[in-house]
Amino acid sequence: MRIAILTDIHANREAFEAVLADATARGATQFAILGDIVGYGGDPGWCVERTMALAKAGGVVVRGNHDQAVYDPSISLNETARAAIQWTARQLSPEHAEYLATLPLTVREGDRLYVHSSAAAPGRFNYLLDTEDASGHFAACDARLGFCGHVHRPRLYSMGAGKVCSFAPTGQTPIPLLAQRRWVAVVGSVGQPRDGDPAAGYAIYDTQTCELCFHKAAYDIEAASAKIRAAGLPDSLAQRLLTGK
Ligand code: ZN
How far apart are CA 11 and CA 165, in angstroms? Predict the structure, then answer.
């Protein structure tokens, strides 16, 4: 089974649709959404609806900090993100907001743990940015494989004999997640990549071969950017889609 792992969609319908099509063409039959379905982008309602449909079809969905910020003002966000969330909350139906509020912070499926930020205090939404953070993740759970988002830049960490190492994956190359090591993959963002490549990022994990592959899918960035401007959201959010930074 191939599981497409998507995170940080951030209300970017064009990127979300492109990734779903790309993943399906690559044989993905299951979907895991690692949170931040909304925030920043111009299509929050559509993205929540699509996520609900994927969940109904057996997909995994966990909650991100932007999803929580829709109904929980105690979540800390910078000024731009706060402005976007206030607009987002006005676009969503009560059913959408309720759905976001019912999402779990983590989902465990066999040897896989799905979480937005890290297994170390998932509700605090700390970033998993280096080998020390990865050690904290490994210490906080016993899942051999972890998948998270939140950072918007892809990175893969692994631990063997108590030592954690990391590398920046290059796209389209399947990486065997060797059984004698533990792994945590930070999957790049679908809807607001920050790795310098504006194409939508995601990953596919193959449960048969135990290989993980990071992918990038081209999408209509201009259209997504235009919707952000039309909504009157901060212009920097439209701009950064074009650069992927
Ligand atoms: Zn995010």
Answer: 33
Instruction: For residues 31-47, give the mean pLDDT.
Output: 98
- pLDDT for position 240: 96
C-alpha 233: how far from its chain's center?
21
What is the reported pTM? 0.96
CA–centroid distance, 161 to ligand 1, in Å, is 32
Tell me the CA–centroid distance for residue 191 and ligand 1, in Å.
Answer: 9
Angle at Cα 218 formed by Cα 23 and Cα 227, nearest 5°?
A: 110
> Which of 46, 192, 182 is closest to 111 using CA atoms?
182
Within 10 angstroms of residue 26's Cβ, the number of other Cβ atoms is: 15
Position 66 scores a pLDDT of: 98
Confidence check: pLDDT of 59 > 80: yes
Give pLDDT, residue 158: 98
Cα(144)–Cα(138) distance, integer angstroms: 8
Sign of the C-alpha dihedral computed for residues 28, 32, 34 and 35 taken in this order = positive
How far apart CA 88 and CA 176 sit, in angstroms, is 39
**Quick one: DSSP state of residue 124?**
G
Q: Is 90 exceeded by the pLDDT of residue 172? A: no
- Average pLDDT over the chain, rounded to an integer: 97
Separation of CA 180 and ligand 1 centre (Å): 31
Q: What's the 9 CA to ligand 1 centre distance in angstroms?
A: 7
Residue type for 42, please? G
SS3 9: coil
pLDDT of residue 120: 96
